[in-house]
User: What shape does this take?
Amino acid sequence: MRSSTFICVLTVALLVCTARGPPARAQIPSIDVPCLQVPVTLDGAITGPEWSDAAALSTYFHFYNFSADPVEYVGNQSVTLYVKHDSTQLWIGILMEDAIENLTTWPTYPTGMPSALGDGLWIFYDVNGDGWTGAGDDEKGIVHPSFTYDGALIPSFPGYDEDTDLGGTKDIAGASGWAAGWLTYEVVHPLNAGDAAGNDPALAPGDHLAVSFVVMDPEFGNVNQVYAWTSLYDLVIAPCPVGGVITATGFELLTPLLGLGAAVSLAVAALKKRRP
Ligand SMILES: [Ca+2]
Ligand SMILES: [Ca+2]
Ligand SMILES: [Ca+2]
Ligand SMILES: [Ca+2]
Assistant: This one.
């Protein structure tokens, strides 16, 4: 399944790469991706502490209108990126300032896709490790409110395809939501899906992989070719605690120990008070 939107996004990605050229690995900022302790509910809303234990990066998306000639800068919106893993899956959350969110009917989308879609997020992984995103790399996406996509960048026209068309598997789940001027994306995919045909990452704790994010916001410039993107970040997948991931159940098991610790502290304090 192909659509003009994905072609446009790919064009943006290639423009970015061409303009900057393959950067040296040492120039890429790194993000230490911690091992998950608080489970995430994929519902397109950040509720309670579900992302509080993730690596968090606050920055701005700078948007450009690619339907203008020449391409013009149209402004920025603040964003926070969240990333963490649970030893088998990578979890990504994005909270982006977005004053208006109107779902748009996309006549170019093929049959089978939702008729009304909004903003989109694309995630590009430098799977072949050459320092930029192009043929041989992975492309995953989510379009608000309900469409997810697992693709691969390939050498032949049009430069990308869905993993399932290439003999691979779709390996992404996600949800998005808009409320009170903020758009939220929550996405998860395997660290290693075992899908070489789809150019998917093959990560394990201790590994690292470069990633860049591209977002589309049609309402920002009232056209459907308004994009912002990040530079490459090197995701460093941290080892999990010895004994496995601390899950919600494990956290509850720790509570009596924490209670014991507090009791010991109080007892020590009481003993100190009794000293002359
Ligand atoms: Ca959530
Ligand atoms: Ca690459
Ligand atoms: Ca895949
Ligand atoms: Ca893929």
Remarks:
- The chain has a mean pLDDT of 80.
- The first strand starts at residue 30 and ends at 33.
- The helical segments are 4-20, 248-274.
- DSSP finds two helices and 15 strands in the chain.
